[in-house]
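Hi R.,

Here's the chain you asked about this morning:
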Amino acid sequence: MRLLIVGLLVTFPLVAEKFLLKPTDTAPVATGEVDVNRDEYGDSKIDLTVDHLARAAELSPAHHVYVVWVQPSPGAAQNMGELKVGDDLKGQFKAVTPLRNFDVFITAETDPQTPQPRGPVVMRAAVHQTGK
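And here is the predicted structure, written out as tokens:
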């Protein structure tokens, strides 16, 4: 029985917290949240969802993609990858970072591989994990 309990602790995330993504004037009706689960190694597993986010090509000026960034304080923003938004104006993005406390933000960009944010920020959340 003790082995089963230890196995369950290793399988499931140790800490789970939710953070609301706040829209900017670029995408004022967008809503979203970031679920962050810390695994047994201390890494933060990011599960980001958005709703009512216009496609990047429909912004003014138009862009090609949305990019998700994490940024420690202090520190430079890190490109985590492209957030794809469907015809239903919903999107989901998953990533893992060794950071525990950081900002997550989404920008509209012309290049998904950009090494630094260049386009406007459309949504933002501050992730400050309280769990051990």
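One quick note: The radius of gyration is 16 Å.

Cheers,
M.
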